[in-house]
What we know:
The chain is mainly alpha-helical.
Amino acid sequence: MSDITKQVRKEIHDTLDKGLIVDQDEIAAAIISARPDIRGNDAEFYRLFAFEHARDVARSCIKKAKVADLDPDLQLTLPGFDHLQKAYFVRRGRRNLLVPVDQCTDIELLARASEYEEMAKGCRAHAREIREYVAARAGQAA
């Protein structure tokens, strides 16, 4: 894991720990501001590309983020629930965010529920195909 990825994960963890929404652009800005010593005629060029790279890393970490991945000691689910996470990836406008569940809108949460239902359909179809394949293979061996 790169130093940038480690720093992004730490920024995500710290932000969630404060109960705040994680914004990829804010994470990228924090990464860049921690490395201000860019000099010379091309400094602005390098700052821009560094910001773009930091934002890409932040976007990737946010989209893949599971609270337990950020800190193994953290509980992924809300107390009293078996699956409800403490935070979800949400796209608001053009912004990729990791939003604490209590700050997600009903529409965002219901959209996530629909995504999980669609994923479940795909998983059931996949399981069915595996069983059909095993049955067909067993029939050929007989």
